[in-house]
Design brief:
Largest sheet: 3 strands, mixed
Helix content: 25-40%
Distance between the termini: 34 Å
Order of helices and strands: HHEEEEHHHEEHHHHEEEEHHE
Number of helices: 11
CATH superfamily of the largest domain: Cytochrome c-like domain
Strand order of the largest sheet: 10-9-11
CATH architecture of the largest domain: Orthogonal Bundle
Shape: globular
CATH class of the largest domain: Mainly Alpha
Bound molecules: heme C
Radius of gyration: 19 Å
Structural class: alpha+beta
CATH topology of the largest domain: Cytochrome Bc1 Complex, Chain D, domain 2
Number of domains: 2
Strand content: 5-15%
Length: 287
């Protein structure tokens, strides 16, 4: 135990050296996110019952002024190119059944309104939660006779981005009363607080205890998922949620679970719930 505490202290001492005193003093910004001067995004809201914090805050507030401005202007937001690409895929025939997504679900985005705000959902047939990526694959296989996408295939990220974007501004809400969602929430909560890796850190160490502090040049947010897939400036591309989870776990120098594994699905259920009430921001712009 003593060893564990030392590790955290050493890590943070090392990582925080990069931040200036002024930077360390800065909390989340007080700005409002209004996209294209017309759509107000809920980026702060009262936490749901049972949440360890009083207020849930979008990662947008923790980014620099320049990065925040990119997200507020859909012409400048580089993630919007992926929304366009996703719309193209939605309307393109693929697979042996000769169908596109639009063949069954229409091409006006009406079907998708709200869907991106309410995933993950309970998947009765497979007796586990399903997220957008897996729902896309399910429809490709069963309804299009097309191959499922491999994890993080460019088309998977673009189509997921398009689907979520159709719920832009709508508050995130996961229905924990469906099926066995509650036990996946429990498992996700347990994982969130379990310290792992050589650095012996949990999600909560960084995103709850050190929230608002700097780790190297990065301002630690609450780690909410309402903007995923997000456009990361560092990578100049879209980053999926499970890729982000894996990156965060890798940073603790732990082995990271496979995408869509039970562990990452449980984390998706739990962490999505932690951001309940925040608007869908996809495609959010992050560092
Ligand atoms: C042949 C018709 C057909 C095609 C083509 C099809 N789907 Fe579906 N889709 C369905 C049916 C039927 C359901 C509802 C039952 C189910 O979940 O399978 C559904 C459900 C969904 C849902 C879940 C809706 C909800 O309320 O949660 C999403 C999202 C979805 N489809 C996306 C897609 C995408 C993306 C594509 C293209 C890759 C696609 N579908 C192609 C028939 C189709
Ligand atoms: C060593 C510290 C550290 C740990 C441990 C850590 N993260 Fe992160 N995480 C970061 C940093 C740094 C960022 C980028 C800045 C930010 O948004 O906090 C980040 C970003 C995120 C984001 C994106 C937030 C956004 O607004 O785009 C999510 C989601 C996330 N983390 C989830 C997790 C989960 C789940 C775990 C546990 C499995 C975890 N993190 C563990 C440091 C950490």
């Amino acid at each position: 135990m003593a060893k564990a505490i030392k590790h955290v202290a050493v890590l943070f001492a090392g990582m925080m050296l990069g931040g200036s005193t002024a930077a360390l003093a800065g909390g989340p910004s007080d700005d409002k996110l209004i996209i294209d001067d017309e759509m107000e995004i809920i980026t702060r809201t009262a936490a749901p019952e049972g949440h360890p914090l009083d207020e849930v805050i979008s990662g947008w507030h923790y980014r620099t002024k320049e990065t925040r401005a990119l997200e507020a202007d859909s012409f400048q937001n580089p993630g919007m190119l992926y929304v366009e690409r996703g719309e193209e895929i939605w309307n393109t025939v693929d697979g042996a059944a000769g169908k596109s997504c639009a063949s069954c679900h229409g091409d006006d985005g009406e079907f998708l309104k709200g869907i991106g705000a309410n995933y993950p959902k309970w998947d009765e047939a497979n007796n586990r939660p399903i997220n957008i990526e897996l729902q896309i694959n399910a429809c490709r296989e069963a309804n299009m006779e097309a191959k499922p996408y491999k994890f993080d295939a460019a088309d998977q990220k673009a189509l997921t981005t398009y689907i979520r974007h159709q719920s832009l501004g709508m508050p995130v809400e996961v229905d924990l009363t469906q099926g066995d969602m509650k036990s996946w929430w429990d498992k996700g909560e347990e994982l969130y607080y379990t310290r792992t890796g050589q650095l012996n850190l949990s999600c909560a160490t960084c995103h709850e205890d050190y929230n608002g502090n700097y780790i190297r040049a990065d301002h630690l947010s609450q780690g909410n998922v309402n903007g995923f897939p997000t456009y990361r400036l560092k990578q100049s591309s879209m980053v999926s949620l499970h890729n982000r989870f894996r990156g965060c776990i890798r940073d603790t120098r732990a082995e990271f679970p496979a995408a869509f594994s039970d562990d990452l699905m449980a984390l998706e259920v739990y962490v999505t719930w932690r951001g309940s009430g925040l608007s869908v921001e996809t495609p959010a712009v992050r560092q």
